[in-house]
Design brief:
- The chain has 89 residues and is of the alpha+beta class.
- The protein folds into 2 domains: 57 residues, no CATH class; 31 residues.
- The longest helix has 18 residues.
- The protein is extended, with a radius of gyration of 16 Å.
- The two termini are 28 Å apart.
Length: 89
């Protein structure tokens, strides 16, 4: 199931209400579990993709050429907009 950890920055996302009220959100503690698992577990597959503390299959969209670059560019633009006028967001 897709998820979005609750974080103070998430209040600035348009989708905030939908995501948090449709059962897709996790607490910060819940959202950190896979990251902690990957940092601490001794039986991981090198280079593996993990979700919900388990080895998982990468979404095919993540493997498409140019998608990562587009995401990076969009993220930079949004962070730049927010950092210039955080009170207006």
């Amino acid at each position: 199931m897709p998820s979005c950890p609750r974080h103070p920055v998430s209040k600035y996302f348009v989708e905030n209400w939908i995501v948090h009220n449709m059962g897709f959100s996790k607490t910060a503690w819940q959202g950190a579990q896979t990251l902690l698992h990957c940092c601490l577990a001794k039986d991981l597959v090198p280079g593996g993709y993990y979700a919900e503390c388990r080895l998982a299959t990468v979404n095919s969209q993540a493997l498409q050429d140019g998608v990562g670059e587009k995401l990076w560019t969009a993220s930079e633009r949004l962070v730049d907009q927010w950092s210039r006028n955080p009170e207006e967001q």
